[in-house]
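Task card 7
Instruction: Convert sequence to structure tokens.
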Amino acid sequence: MNKDMSYKAVNDRKNEIMKKAVGIDYGTFESKGIAFDYEGMMKKVGYTIDEIKEIEGRTGIGNTPVYELRNLTALARKFAPEGKGARIFVKDEAANPSGSYKARRAAASVYHAKKMGYKGVIAATSGNYGAAVASQAAMLGLKCIIVQECYDSEHKGQPEIVEKARKCEAYGAEVVQLTVGPELFYTFLVLLEETGYFNASLYTPFGIAGVETLGYEIAEQFKEKEGKFPDVVVATNAGGGNLTGTARGLIKAGATDTQVIGASVDLSGLHMASDKQFNKKSFTTGHTGFGIPFATWPDRSDVPRSAARPLRYMDRYVTVTQGEVFYITEALAQVEGLERGPAGNTSLAAAFSLAQELDKDKIIVVQETEYTGAGKHIQPQLSFAKDNGIKVVVGDPKDQVPGENIVLPKDPSYIKVNEIKLDKLKRSFIKNAIANNSDVDITEKDIKFLAEETRKDEEFVKSILDELGVKY
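Output:
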């Protein structure tokens, strides 16, 4: 008998499809309430960090160089108070085979898929991750399908996304290009079910464990090079996996006092699933359109439980503007001789501002760069923005209105981070946890879990439950 392939029927089979496609029975980590066994799920990866380093090393991933950005540091010090202006370093992850840290994120998944006998891998992503999965699949001889939201309903595609689609195809992947909307997840599930391929999701424990080597490597390199761990690591934040994996790696290396700061491009007011607003943004990842919703409710991804849980590890969360990232991208090329894509430059723009808060002897590390290409350069991005009605002006980035204008800073002194109140996000997380589990009784186990998820004490959790009138 033919299976029911209606939208509802396929979504109703989601857990069954995922169990076969990831090889993880997420149900074994669940309790009857809000809590689930996060660390137990992470252990399901089954590889130690040394084993993952070895897996990544087989395909040339890792051991990427660290550069001290002396000229940008000197520039930041010009605008810093006396005695301030930390040394800025960047971890050049563009040196990985597919041109970004996402190669680490893909390696363990694709290796595991091969080991378990899957014939191919599938990933749903419009970012560098697709290229990373395609690259790893090519190296290990697996088939690969990448599902991307590429276009609006008029079939207009943002240059950066189109660039990434071409890169996936160059590695031999089949790229399923979709318009923005709910069909992405449905198509993804159908492909998983029909092909029997492995779900190389960004959000499985394999993906996050792969990124742990990045944090671990940063800690080791600075211990050897500078005799101490970095004081601050800045990670561009979208779905939370970059920050989560890096922070877990730092902790595993013993760098428990290193402050981890998330940075996103401010696209407040733009709805990512809106067809009309899809091409009003100039950044396809690393922005608040992903960063905020995935921080306040991580379990909205393509697996039942996301392994990316940034609120567990984030010390601060800041935003920068599109214009500030464009400016620092050009500055990196012109004063440091490094031409890199926009994703890592989001955290670099933030680091340029944050360094001015720190003493000169402190070390701040931008933990990634990404490759650049035809669609990622500043000019096609700004031209596309203008074609979509966005004004591009020079002035104070504070005057940015996402979807209406891009304000390039008059000079570097105008690059300033904006602080996001973490406690507000943590309150939203708890509210979402309650809203998504309205039919369960809240237990002490749930309260402990929510405290761990938000890095707060149980009294903080109880105070919000009291505000919401929730009994426990």
